[in-house]
Amino acid sequence: MKGILGGTGTSSKPQGSAISGPALNGLGAAIKRQVQPCYDLGALGGTDAMRIITVLRLRFNQDGSVNGTPEMIEQTGLTSDNRSYARQMAEISRRAVLRCAPLHLPAELYKGGWDEIDIGFIPAQMH
Amino acid sequence: MTKSKLTISLFAGLVALTACSSHQPKAASLPPAPATKAPAPNSNGDVDTGAVRDTVVLGSHADFLRQVGTDMVHFALNSHDLDSEAKAILDREIRWLKKYPSTRVTIEGHCDERGTREYNIALGEKRADAVRDYLVKAGVANSVNVISYGKERPLAMGSDEDAWAQNRRAVTVTPN
Amino acid sequence: MSSVIRKWAVTALMAVSSTALFAQNPAAGGNNAAPANQGDSRRILRVDITGGISQPMPIAIPVMPTPNSVTTLAGTTAVLGRQVASVISNDLKSSGLFSPSQQASLHNVSFPEVTAPQYGYWLSSGAQALVQGFVQANGDGTLTVGCYLYDVFASQEMLHKGFVVKPADWRRAAHRCADAVYTRLTGEGPYFDSRIVYISETGPKNHRLKRLAIMDQDGANHRFLTNGQSMVLTPRFAPNQQTVTYLSYVDNAPRIYVYTLGSGHVRSVVNKPNTTFAPRFSPDGKTIVFSMSVAGNADIYKVPVSGGQATRLTTSPGIDTAPSFSPDGSKIVFESDRSGSQQIYVMNADGSNQNRISFGSGRYATPVWSPRGDLIAFTKLGGGFHVGVMKTDGSGEQILTNGWQDEGPSWSPNGRVIAFFRTARNSGHTELWSVDLTGVNERHIPTPLDGSDPSWGPLLP
């Protein structure tokens, strides 16, 4: 893979590098704006669950709908006081994406941009 | 029979009413009531009560009220200390109790509503016990029982300083 | 934003990566979808959502169908299907964490549909979660209540359970279903299938009739246990729920007693000529800890429930009262005014190592240890009475209520909700209320007359 990246000529450009920094920033802001209103902590608001950070990996179809099942790739901030909320926090994160889908994002940034993204759900700032 | 019974109880009620109305419980901070308002006992402990006199059975609670002037003492907030006014009242109670040493006495301790239930039961007991202690140390031979009602039996119904002052009390109960 | 993440990373004590909480998603065919952590050929965009909203969750609980309507001792199974759904809805709503749809507005669920929900319909109804179920009469006279929970957005079943009950106990099946749903969606322990014993009050402020009474947590199945001839106060459930210990003024002598729920049998606990009060069971149900006044001085004692010798635990000249065991039975929290004002203290169960833990402004009373062990609920006095919680070392104080006089906290079985009583200024009317740990969700617990001194029992077996 490294060879490809460092290679020359006709080999396909590595995905991701096709999109400029500013475009990525704009894309990130658009996703955040669309998903945030659906991130409803419900019963877990104000509990020790607020310290749990969940990261989901999502694949999207070109129409903005979610492709397949969101996968949880990381969960941090677990303590003995909030371990019982871990599953619920993951589900709340998944629900946020499913509720707000389909996302409305620029088609030209799909491939290598938002066809697959990680979303980190951080319930609260530190107390 | 029925008629005479009714008359007596009516008179007794009148005495109790009189005693009550001339001795509204006062805030502990107020000075003692003027002597003229109280049926102050004379040197031999008798009181001229006029026409009602004959209806009061000696040694009864009505008699106690007539002789002592009141059956309760009051306390400062969160306190079970007897102040000089309370002690003056208890001194009159002692005089009466020593005349009727076989009369059984119950001291009820009460609190105002500004404490939690459990604490007030304990505080009411402390107040009743302070009165019992004073009576016993003065040498009364009567059987003296104490009971705390905490904040469960207020005398005044309101939620203000005046009502609270009236409710912080210990009551000496003698048989009718 | 990244600085926030870094701070979190520092405070995170444990990290779990890639757990199988969701159905594993085999990389969808794409051989070119390289994982992000495998080199730099594909850097996956990471977006952080910081700070969420917190609203009651929209949930639909439609009428539960019956395969065929049968008349039972508690009514027809068709009517029960409507009532069970209502009880579940009321339980979830009372927690303040759910917003159930109006039952009448929902479409009629057919029996086969119970296990195959019409997700499209429920999605358009705005519900995020869906509770379906059925009520079926069995040949042996019992009922089966089926209980299914679905995630509407994920089109996925979250749980299914069945409860077999006598028709008369249909409400318990509903509470059990509500508990299962609540636990699955919130991560908290259950509490709806439980009872409250309390003091029913009526009459003028200076002459209140006070009776021991018991009811379900939602106010149903209410009954009086004593007739009011003697004043009764501060009832506390035994852990096994078969008995209640309380203070009674029977024979004009305030003493603690144990009442047996099935038989109505009452017996005295401490055979002493002293006032005993503020009783509470130990977590194993074998000991009662209480206060006794000797020569006016209230100290804390403990005594075997079966009777016998009382052991003195405190010796301060002040008022020591309102003791409550920690859930492991090793410690006792209590209040004492030995410092000059009511404050909260913790000691070992044998009375050793007495330490004050409350240091805020004002006075503190009636401490009660949470069944989870993490918090102590109390009444704070000063500018009225308010119910609050603190950690067991006295830190993290939070005041949860704001009535004129809110007093006498008692924990729900899951340690998430606190029942207490609220007294009105002047009139002296009392009501039972509950509040959750956020302090936001306060609700009135309905009682036929006035109510005080709630004691929330453990989850029913």
From TrEMBL, chain A:
Superkingdom of this protein's organism: Bacteria
Protein name (record): TolA protein
Native species: Zymomonas mobilis
Lineage: Bacteria, Pseudomonadati, Pseudomonadota, Alphaproteobacteria, Sphingomonadales
Automatic annotation (TrEMBL), chain B:
InterPro entries: Bact_OuterMem_StrucFunc, OMP_bac, OmpA-like, OmpA-like_sf, Pal, Pal_lipo_C
Source organism (scientific name): Zymomonas mobilis
Gene transcribed to yield this protein: pal
Biased composition (Low complexity): 25-41
Annotated segments matching region Disordered: 25-49
Subunit record text: The Tol-Pal system is composed of five core proteins: the inner membrane proteins TolA, TolQ and TolR, the periplasmic protein TolB and the outer membrane protein Pal. They form a network linking the inner and outer membranes and the peptidoglycan layer.
Topology term for the membrane: Lipid-anchor
GO cellular component terms, A-Z: cell outer membrane
CDD domains, per database record: OmpA_C-like (cd07185)
Family per similarity comment: Belongs to the Pal lipoprotein family.
Protein name: Peptidoglycan-associated lipoprotein
Record's keyword annotation contains Oxidoreductase: no
Signal sequence extent: 1-27
Compartments reported by the entry: Cell outer membrane
TrEMBL record, chain C:
GO cellular component: periplasmic space
InterPro entries associated with the record: 6-blade_b-propeller_TolB-like, Tol-Pal_TolB, TolB_N, WD40
A Pfam cross-reference name: TolB_N
Residues spanning the signal sequence: 1-23
Keyword flag Mitochondrion: no
Alphabetized UniProt keyword annotations: Cell cycle, Cell division, Periplasm, Signal
Compartment(s) where it occurs, according to its Swiss-Prot or TrEMBL record: Periplasm
GO biological process: cell division; protein import
TolB N-terminal domain span: 45-158
Gene3D superfamilies: TolB, C-terminal domain (2.120.10.30), TolB, N-terminal domain (3.40.50.10070)
Family affiliation: Belongs to the TolB family.
Subunit (UniProt): The Tol-Pal system is composed of five core proteins: the inner membrane proteins TolA, TolQ and TolR, the periplasmic protein TolB and the outer membrane protein Pal. They form a network linking the inner and outer membranes and the peptidoglycan layer.
PANTHER family per record: PROTEIN TOLB, PROTEIN TOLB HOMOLOG
Role this protein plays: Part of the Tol-Pal system, which plays a role in outer membrane invagination during cell division and is important for maintaining outer membrane integrity.
The protein's name in its UniProt record: Tol-Pal system protein TolB
Organism: Zymomonas mobilis
High-level lineage: Bacteria, Pseudomonadati, Pseudomonadota, Alphaproteobacteria, Sphingomonadales
